[in-house]
Write a structure and sequence with these properties.
It contains 11 helices and 2 strands. By secondary structure, the chain is mainly α. The chain is globular, with a radius of gyration of 17 Å.
Length: 260
């Protein structure tokens, strides 16, 4: 079941990230978190996200505006490293609270609470119409890079903020897609450096089939990216965004409350 759910999510969301506000990591990470501990889910998602974005760079990266990339992605990379360091810190913290519900014991941990709240906030980007039109001027690019990069490093959620800051800088649709993809690769590489070999060694130990599932999800994301790159017409995603937003809201609340 884990292969079916995660691979289907990877194909669908990877295809739609070329056009929509939410990113692959925003939706794929909660899918991983349904089957694995949260640090494992975030780390596994980071691997898939980076590999998929490298593949997308091959498809659409030549249209990137490098001036925008440098102003946005370099501050984002630094902030992503800070967010990733905080993730490592939170992952080792003791539970904040423990309670019993439906015959099971649940723990509210720092990392689940923080990431759960972040997921809920990003879900609002999909549910509240105002945020669909949120955009910032070019002069705020470095700040936007830092903000989206930080949340990318901490929780894997960065797509909606990245789109909000890149959408209004005068880029064509092709340049917008290419610039966002290249920027995402730079941020992913930075956070993976901080997660480091020790992070993966510690948190992936004892988790069966995780690397084979990461590989399957990566290949599924490649397929989705290829399909998305072949979509010529702009597609309307409002209904899908609402569905995704509601699902993310439920997952975020469940995670923050220690249920998931």
């Amino acid at each position: 079941m884990d292969y079916v759910v995660i691979c289907l999510v990877a194909v669908l969301v990877s295809a739609l990230t070329l056009f929509s506000g939410f990113g692959l990591g925003t939706v794929l990470m909660p899918a991983f978190a349904l089957f694995f501990p949260l640090p494992v889910a975030i780390a596994a998602t980071a691997v898939v996200h980076l590999a998929n974005n490298i593949f997308k760079v091959i498809l659409v990266g030549k249209k990137a505006d490098w001036g925008v990339v440098l102003r946005f992605a370099l501050p984002g990379a630094v902030a992503a490293m800070v967010g990733a360091a905080l993730l490592n810190l939170f992952a080792g913290a003791a539970p904040l609270a423990t309670y019993s519900w439906s015959g099971q014991t649940h723990e509210v941990t720092t990392i689940k609470l923080v990431v759960g709240i972040i997921i809920v906030l990003f879900a609002l980007f999909e549910l509240i119409p105002y945020f669909n039109h949120l955009a910032f001027e070019r002069k705020y690019l470095p700040w936007g890079g830092m903000l989206s990069g930080f949340f990318g490093g901490l929780s894997g959620n960065q797509g909606a903020l990245r789109s909000a800051f890149l959408i209004k800088v005068g880029l064509s649709k092709e340049a917008f897609v290419g610039t966002g993809t290249v920027s995402s690769v730079i941020v992913d590489a930075a956070r993976l450096l901080v997660y480091g070999v020790s992070f993966y060694t510690v948190h992936f130990t004892g988790v069966s089939d995780i690397w084979s599932l990461v590989l399957a999800a990566t290949l599924a994301a490649f397929l989705g990216a290829f399909i998305g790159s072949r979509l010529v017409k702009k597609i309307t995603l409002r209904t899908l965004q609402v569905i995704v937003g509601v699902m993310l809201m439920l997952v975020g609340l469940g995670m923050a409350g220690g249920i998931l």
